[in-house]
Amino acid sequence: MMGAIFYFSAQPFEGPELAWWEVAIRKLGHVAGYAVLTFLWWWALVGRADHPLAIAAVISLLYAASDEYHQTFTENRNGSPLDVGIDAIGIALACGVVSWRWPGPPESG
Hints:
Structural class: mainly alpha
Number of domains: 1
């Protein structure tokens, strides 16, 4: 997932200004992508680390910030703290779903 995010953020922006609904779809992509990233990190860390959800959230948030910085080196792109905030919404949604669906330690076996 991190590779996919990196790939898409490395694409230069070419073309006319986007319509509001195109911008909304892109922002929903941020939310969905970072929700999936957080879930995948949580899944990978369960049983291997204490507080896997918190670690997954921190990793995902740090990656969001580093990805926005990475975009500053891409033609016609810029990094945006607002986008990190939008990514954080996806991270929070994943944390909420995981906490709601799996409130206790996962059962082994």
